# Entry
Amino acid sequence: MTIFKKLLYRVCKAIVMPETEYEGIPRNKIPWDPKIDYSKCTTCGKCIEFCHMNVFKLENKNGKKITTVNPNACVVFCRGCENICLSKAIDHPDETHTQTVINRLKKQSNPK
Ligand code: SF4
Ligand code: SF4
# Structure
């Protein structure tokens, strides 16, 4: 299975049941979530419509609309929403860094 097919499979699976772990590591320990550049975000709502994991939400804070993020609902290594944001306001962490963290956590949980 190609990397793309594997990712697509995991996204589809996560829609039914959000990932609580990734490769045996608790999801909340993995640094992978969309970062919003609020100087660019226009609160257009496209990311909310697009992401089936309900990672994004439009909230009212101090009388101002703001797009918020539920970080642990994001599918690890998915970048689907980056290209649909016309303002280029969405970015994700560096994949190599995230993979390094995952490898370290795997070693710690299974030292041999
Ligand atoms: S698609 Fe981009 S500009 Fe629109 S709400 Fe999401 S982050 Fe903001
Ligand atoms: S990368 Fe974007 S579209 Fe994919 S799960 Fe995360 S927030 Fe949703």
